[in-house]
Amino acid sequence: MKSKQSISTWLRLFIGLTLLFLFTQIQWGNYFFPTKKMDQEEVDNSALFYTESEAAMDAAFYLNKNDK
Amino acid sequence: MEKRSFLLTHEDYWSIWIGGFILLFGLFLFYNNTPEDFEKKHEDYDQILQTEKEKAPFKTIEWYRAFRAQRSIKAASEPVGKFFKKLTGKPSSWSTNPLAGLYKSADRDSLEKHGYTIKLADLVEKNKLQLVLAEDAQQKAAKEDFKNTALNLEAEAAIETWYKGREKSSAMKKKTKGTNPFKLGWLVLWFGILSLLFLPGIYFLGEKRKGFVKGFAFVFLIAIISYLFGAQSNMKAMGIGYAAWAIVLGMLISNTIGTPKWVTPALQTSWFIKTGLVLLGAEVLFNKVMSIGLPGIFVAWMTTPIVLISTYWFGQNILKIKSKTLNMVISADMSVCGVSAAVATAAACKAKKEELTLAIGMSMAFTSVMMIVLPIIIKGMGLSEILGGAWIGGTIDATGAVVAAGEFLGDKALYVAATIKMIQNILIGIIAFGVAIYFTTSNENGEKTKVGISEIWNRFPKFILGFIGASILFTLIYTSMGDNHAYTIIDQGVISGLSKNVRGWLFCLAFVSIGLSTNFSVLKKHFSGGKPLVLYVVGQTFNLILTLVMAYIMFYLIFPDITKQL
């Protein structure tokens, strides 16, 4: 009984991981993203804080120099 | 038994010791390993920028060349910096095979690089032509002494096209130079170092040391997998990074096979978060508030507290959300900057982990949608790039999404959006401090109570002092060094080369711990009647309206001269 339950929980974990992997494989960009860069090159929009984004750091540096 | 000092037996103080040690180590390291002649190089480039600015009413080719060269003076690019970047690095990008994020065979690596080299050659060819056109246009404008407006505009447009092409080919060049990323060895070394950092604290806090390392290995492994999922190309583009994956994977394990008991000693959620927040303090640099001038400060620093307080009030008095801490975490998460603000306020008001999970989940879902929808609305409404950028920066939660949405509108929008978000990010310290004070001086019902100073001190989350202390210390160091030197040593040294990555790992470990100790049914209970969702939507709607109005007033009615210069 206990081993059956154990198999079922492992199976659920395996199905969960497979579904999550499949979720990553959907080309969401083709359906939802009209962004210009998506088709041509890789982009990273996952920065949480400004220091994690090179583009944000560059923007601050640009405005700093632009101001002088 | 010998009585130990409270400075050694409290988790908050250990967060300060570990965070402080990493920051001071980083400062020592990068201060003593700067690029050769970097001071002189900065001076020379500043001189060129100044001369070129006085020469023409637009940014010349020489201006952009000096700007790019100056931007690349980074302490993190020196050998020591590269070592620590590798040590604290994360899995690489992949699209269909997750293992490619950890390991690439030499054949596959050279095949990929070959593909990049072909693309690079194409980009370089195009860029050469763009340069010829830009030089020609600049020369024509120069012949007229830069007094012919039509020729100036023509030159400006041609130079911008060349510059964008240059940036593209330079990004591609980086890809062709990357080394074969065999990450596993670095990850094992990093696991060992992180364990060592926490072991003394574990000893003094009375936890089982052996149990910690074994459990920590499991948590670390899930953190690696979370980073792997977050590094998948579609997920990176969607802005679904490690934070969401860490919680989802942790919850998947805890709600299927269950979290193994031997992992429990390593589920140090609050300790990881607090240590990460002390490191985050060094990234919160107050001197950066002036980056975009007064209109930016008004948009970011006036709207945010108004939205935060109004949303919290709405949650308490209209929606009557039972948990004050849940209400506060969602309000801060939505009004300030998403995940990092949620983490900071949750730690400051001692919110439950399920409450933080809920706030982060909603923030990430809405951010992914707003990142796409908001720029489309802005284009539809015909708003200017600056107004649109300010609106995006003030309302979308995560920086990555802000940059993506801003970029969709154009370069000016990107600059404004990213900078407004940066100024808003700086508010985190002040808000976390204010929230900690509010929650230590009020009772369960949110009413002010008379509490003695010593009681306030007892209740006050001490790690906030480390957070604020790091922020003040690094702001002072930054200011005393001057913008150029600080850019090389702090921005592109201590932060970019060390603390940012370590902080990311600590947050990832914390989110994994949250997931591993979260039960779906408990989480569902906190979502009672969908009130948190209503709170988020109502708060965000108010935020959208107020930010747009404030941005219009500030950038177009009160400070139009500053707007013209952008």
What would the average pLDDT of chain A be, to the nearest integer? 81
**Backbone CA Rg of chain B:** 25 Å
Helix residue percentage of chain A: 55-70%
What is the CA–CA distance across the termini of chain A? 74 Å
Q: Using the CA coordinates, give the radius of gyration of chain A.
A: 21 Å
Oligomer: heterodimer
- Along the chain, the helix and strand elements of chain B come as HHHHHHHHHHHHHHHHHHHHHHHHH
Largest interface, C-beta within 8 A: A-B, 49 and 73 residues
What value does the average pLDDT of chain B take? 91
Q: What share of the residues of chain B lie within helices? A: over 70%
**Regions of chain B with pLDDT < 50 over 5+ consecutive residues?**
none
The number of helices of chain B is: 25
Biggest pleated sheet of chain A: none
Range of strand content of chain B: under 5%
Please describe what this structure looks like:
- The complex is a heterodimer of chains A (68) and B (566).
- Chain A contains three helices and no strands.
- The longest helix of chain A has 24 residues, at 2-25.
- Chain A has helices at 2-25, 28-32, 54-67.
- Chain A is an all-alpha fold.
- In chain A, 63% of the residues lie in helices and 0% in strands.
- In chain B, 47% of the residues are buried.
- The N and C termini of chain B lie far apart (65 Å).
- Chain B contains 25 helices and no strands.
- The model of chain B has no long low-confidence stretch (mean pLDDT 91).
- Among the domains of chain B are: 56-76 and 105-178, no CATH class; 291-565, no CATH class.
- The radius of gyration of chain B is 25 Å and the shape is globular.
- Chain B is mostly helical.
Using brief descriptors, characterize the structure shown.
heterodimer, A: 68 residues, mainly alpha, B: 566 residues, 25 helices
